[in-house]
């Protein structure tokens, strides 16, 4: 099986994903992501964080997180102290020896003291009866239990709603336009085709998209909103992610889409 770090690095580079994009999407610091790709486990906070970061990074790259985490456990995770402690079984002879120990002198002295105290208590109970004083009972105020304030629904913390995990995208041409559309797996769902005026693509769904447009004659519909491409007089590219506005691609990334 390939190395863990090599698998992460090759997958990310094959999909032309920059490390800053991974950091923004996974909320894992870039230095920890590089440590995962270089298998520098000592630079990470601990085995628990390693497995958590490894699972999150693998899911972002659409890899199987269970295989990578299991590979890390078998090759790099050290056994705990409890696993290294051998189980000791006492010999039957030792148990018999402990059971045959004689009663110590302290036990005998303690029993003698208890017998003397018991005799004194019995003699005290057989003395003359004394008149019991009249006891006037006075009512005592009993504290009234007050109900503890309960946390109202308005005071409780509400969980933040998570944004959509995938993008639903549809492109409509306002004039004849060249389109190259690549999804999160690196697959070109529209592989360098011309869309005629008034025509639309079908609705695609993915974690994110990258699109290369020959001109600005296109309308992008996703997230319940419509966006038009900027008219810069030359081809332009965008990255489309859930809950975010279109982000313009670098020229080197745009030209690499649908490259033959």
UniProtKB/TrEMBL annotation:
Q: Which InterPro entries match?
A: Bact_Cytoskel_RodZ (IPR050400), Lambda_DNA-bd_dom_sf (IPR010982)
Q: What are the transmembrane regions?
A: 103-124
Q: Where is the composition biased (Low complexity)?
A: 138-153
Instruction: Classify the source by domain of life.
Output: Bacteria
Q: Which UniProt keywords apply?
A: Membrane, Transmembrane, Transmembrane helix
Region (Disordered): which ranges? 128-165
Q: What is this protein called?
A: Helix-turn-helix domain-containing protein
Q: Which organism is it from?
A: Solirubrobacter deserti
């Amino acid at each position: 099986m390939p190395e863990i770090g090599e698998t992460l690095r090759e997958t990310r580079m094959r999909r032309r994903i920059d490390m800053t994009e991974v950091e923004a999407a996974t909320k894992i610091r870039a230095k920890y992501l590089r440590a995962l790709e270089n298998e520098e486990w000592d630079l990470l906070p601990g085995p628990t964080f390693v497995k958590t970061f490894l699972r999150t990074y693998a899911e972002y790259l659409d890899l199987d997180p269970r295989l990578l985490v299991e590979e890390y456990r078998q090759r790099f995770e050290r056994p705990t102290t409890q696993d290294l402690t051998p189980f000791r079984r006492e010999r039957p002879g030792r148990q018999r020896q402990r059971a045959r120990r004689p009663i110590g002198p302290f036990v005998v002295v303690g029993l003698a003291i208890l017998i003397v105290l018991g005799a004194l208590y019995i003699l005290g109970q057989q003395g003359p009866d004394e008149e019991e004083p009249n006891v006037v009972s006075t009512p005592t105020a009993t504290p009234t239990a007050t109900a503890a304030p309960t946390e109202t629904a308005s005071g409780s913390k509400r969980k933040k709603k998570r944004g959509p995990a995938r993008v639903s995208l549809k492109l409509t041409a306002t004039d004849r336009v060249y389109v190259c559309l690549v999804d999160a797996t690196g697959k070109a769902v529209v592989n360098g085709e011309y869309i005629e005026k008034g025509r639309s693509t079908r609705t695609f769904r993915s974690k994110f998209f990258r699109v290369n447009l020959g001109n600005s004659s296109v309308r992008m519909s996703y997230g319940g909103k419509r966006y038009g491409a900027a008219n810069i007089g030359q081809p332009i590219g965008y990255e489309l992610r859930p809950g975010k506005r279109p982000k313009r691609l670098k020229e080197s990334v745009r030209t690499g889409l649908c490259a033959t």
